[in-house]
Fold:
Amino acid sequence: MKKIKINFWFFILVTFLQFNYSQEFSKSFLKESAQIILNDSKTCILTTISEDGSPSSRVMDPFIPKDDFIVYMVTNPKSRKVAEIYEDPRVVLVFQNKSGYVSIKGLVSIINNPTHKIKFWKKEWSPYYDSKENAFLFKVSPYSLEIVNFDSGISGNLETWTPPKVSF
Structure:
């Protein structure tokens, strides 16, 4: 009888450790869970690298037309973020809702093509620009994302707090 009890508790311990320390999720499950957070977020934080090498963050209004994690945003061509992106196109976008967050690392392309601006323009941006010609469109192409979504059971590693990552 003791042998059965020990094996039972050993099984429980191993199951607990595997669940809490390995958290293996499929790439599609992680992406679906991340998309929920992106869809719930009204804004995101865009972080660029300033000319002195330090992070520079600001709140942005994203447009996410599909589920491929390509994000579009608009800005004033004279803003400091444009100069920072010309110098180094690597950025981080952070989206948050009540259940967790998604952090996307990617590269920005600056778009000034009128056809692309019309295709990827949110009507909510119009009050801030007298015309689309006086704005730059950012296209953020992701190369990785990290996610924490407690509603989906996705959390960071208990020891390191490192969240699951998806590479594109």
Q: What stands out?
A: The beta strands are 44-49, 55-60, 71-75, 90-97, 100-111, 136-149, 165-167. Residues 24-167 form a domain with the Pnp Oxidase; Chain A fold (CATH 2.30.110.10). The mean pLDDT is 90. The chain has one domain: 24-167.
